[in-house]
Write a sequence for this structure.
C-alpha cells in the first residue's frame, strides 16, 4: 500500500504514478477540506476514478517504522489551515489521530528553504513562516544589495510568478549599480483592481462550460502512462472555441485603461461597456464636430498670445 501526503496537483500525479507502478492500494491525505483542495477538480475526479481514496483535514504526525522499514503513518486532525491574516499556519487537534498501515509514504507538501549560514551575517528579515521580507515593488530586502523573488518571498505559487518577480528584481539590480538611479521611478506598480464577480451581470453571453475530452480504453489507462484522453469531437471544438476568454469582465487595470473604447468594439459578445463616472470633468464631443469646439479656443488662445507678445515688447522698450 502507498500513502501520498498532500492535496495539490503534484500529489495527484504522485498517487496516479503509484497506481501505474503497481501499488495495490493508493490513498491520499491532505490538510484542506474537499472544496479547498489545491488540485484541480478534473485531476481529483480522474484520481478517484482510478480507485485512489482521498481523506481530507489530516496532517502527518509521524512515520511508523518497523525493522528499518516503513510500516505506516500516523495523522492528526487539522482544524484550520490559515491564521486571521490569511497566512498559512495550520492548527491541529492532536487528541484525534489515525494510523494508516502502508509500505510506502510519498510526501508532496511543498518545500521550504534551508538557509543554514547563508544569511547569518546579513540584515535580511524573515517572516515567522521563514519567507524573506522585501519591498513588493523593487524586491529589495533590508540588506540593500540583496534582492529576492519567487517562493522564498511569497511562499508556494506558480513558476510564472517567480519568473516575473525575477525579471523585476533583475531590473532593480541593474538600477542599483547605476549612479544616481532610482529603483522606483517608472516602475509598473502591477496593481490590478479585481471586480466583484458576485455582482457582475454578464447576461448569457458565456454559458458554455469548459469541454473535457473522453477517456479511451478505460480498462487499460489505469496501468499505462500513455495518453488516455481522446481528442475533442467536432461539436466540442465549436463549443470550446466559442467560449468567452474574459477579455474584460474579470480584471481592469485602471493604470493602463485610457478609456478609448476600442475593447467595446472588439468584443463580439457585447460584454464590455464604458461608463463615465465623472462626466462633469470634461466635455465629450463627436469626432466630426471637433473643429466646432477647437476653432473658437484656438482663436482665443492666439489673441492671448499676441497680446502677451505686445506687452513683452513694450516692457523691453521701456526698460
Amino acid at each position: 500500500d502507498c500513502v501520498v501526503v498532500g492535496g495539490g496537483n503534484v500529489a495527484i500525479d504522485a498517487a496516479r504514478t503509484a497506481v501505474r507502478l503497481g501499488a495495490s492500494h493508493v490513498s491520499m491525505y491532505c490538510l484542506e477540506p474537499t472544496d479547498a483542495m489545491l488540485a484541480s477538480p478534473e485531476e481529483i475526479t480522474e484520481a478517484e476514478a482510478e480507485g485512489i481514496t482521498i481523506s481530507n483535514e489530516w496532517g502527518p504526525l509521524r512515520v511508523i517504522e518497523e525493522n528499518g522499514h516503513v510500516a505506516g503513518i500516523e495523522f492528526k486532525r487539522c482544524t484550520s489551515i490559515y491564521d486571521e491574516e490569511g497566512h498559512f499556519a495550520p492548527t491541529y487537534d492532536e487528541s484525534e489521530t489515525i494510523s494508516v498501515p502502508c509500505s510506502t509514504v510519498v510526501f508532496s507538501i511543498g518545500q521550504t528553504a534551508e538557509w543554514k549560514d547563508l544569511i547569518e551575517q546579513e540584515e535580511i528579515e524573515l517572516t515567522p513562516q521563514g519567507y524573506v521580507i522585501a519591498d513588493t515593488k523593487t524586491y529589495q530586502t533590508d540588506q540593500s544589495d540583496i534582492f529576492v523573488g519567487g517562493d522564498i518571498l511569497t511562499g508556494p505559487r506558480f513558476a510564472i510568478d517567480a519568473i516575473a518577480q525575477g525579471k523585476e528584481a533583475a531590473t532593480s539590480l541593474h538600477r542599483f549599480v547605476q549612479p544616481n538611479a532610482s529603483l522606483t521611478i517608472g516602475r509598473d506598480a502591477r496593481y490590478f483592481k479585481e471586480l466583484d464577480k458576485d455582482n457582475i451581470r454578464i447576461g448569457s453571453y458565456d454559458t458554455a462550460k469548459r469541454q473535457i475530452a473522453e477517456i479511451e480504453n478505460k480498462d487499460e489507462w489505469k496501468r499505462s502512462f500513455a495518453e488516455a484522453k481522446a481528442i475533442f469531437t467536432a461539436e466540442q471544438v465549436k463549443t470550446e472555441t466559442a467560449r468567452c476568454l474574459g477579455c474584460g469582465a474579470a480584471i481592469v487595470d485602471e493604470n493602463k485603461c485610457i478609456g478609448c473604447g476600442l475593447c467595446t468594439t472588439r468584443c463580439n459578445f457585447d460584454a464590455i461597456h464604458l461608463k463615465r463616472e465623472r462626466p462633469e470633468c470634461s466635455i465629450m464631443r463627436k469626432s466630426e464636430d471637433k473643429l466646432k469646439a477647437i476653432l473658437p479656443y484656438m482663436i482665443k488662445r492666439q489673441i492671448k498670445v499676441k497680446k502677451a507678445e505686445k506687452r513683452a515688447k513694450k516692457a523691453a522698450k521701456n526698460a
In short: The CA atoms of residues 136 and 205 lie 37 Å apart. The mean pLDDT is 85.
